[in-house]
Amino acid sequence: MDATEIAVTTLAVLLASCALSTVGFGFALLAVPLMALVLPTEDAVVLSVSLALVTTTVQAVHERAHRDRTAAGRLLVGAAAGAPVGLVVLLVFTSRQLQFVLVGVISAFLVVSLRGWHVERDSRALDVGAGFASGLFNTAVAVNGPPLVMALHARHLPPPSFRSTIATVFAVSNAISAVLFAASGRYDGEVVALLLVSVPALALGYLAGVRLRRRFGVEGFRHLVLWVLAFTGVVTLLSALGA
Length: 243
What we know:
By secondary structure, the chain is mainly alpha-helical. It has one domain (about 5-240). About 80% of the residues lie in helices and about 0% in strands. It contains 10 helices and no strands. The chain has helices spanning about 5-25, 25-35, 40-60, 70-90, 95-115, 125-140, 145-155, 160-185, 190-215, 220-240. The longest helix has 25 residues, at about 160-185. The two termini are about 30 Å apart.
């Protein structure tokens, strides 16, 4: 672990934590590509999941009063069912092909959202379906946020409810991944050291996001979510083209 690794990792964590605190998602999207510039990708993923576990848990607990428990439960059930299917899907399609599918789904959602698509608050099929897609894509291409964002955004949840609900789902998913990482011996000395030195940046970014989110009203927040989701689509497309 040298000074460059520490500097790039802490900067990545600062930006990713701020984004997550502001809109409720996007930690891995920002953190992994930046950390992978100086670290092995597998280490970047372990660091991202482990640090995101902290922030998503804090956010889920802090805003628990706003959580849509019904939606969170349905999303988690769907994700649990979709995760093993993702492994089967990988036997038929490549990760690159699935990334193109995800880009297409995100693009279609952005179009219908801009046309004012809205669904009822209590939509079991939407919640379970989005959770299923999230679990499938998470196992297949390590991207689970977009389906969850689409489902919650389409229901026009207030910003605190959106952040709390999606943070709950992320926290559970990240906890499961962290346990698997620990069981497989992925927390070596360097990863643990980088986790420890990243904690101040994690806290600073989270607090900055809390302050930043106050600048957005309900409509401003919804527009910001769409912009971040569009950015996710662009990054995924570039990743697929470069695969």
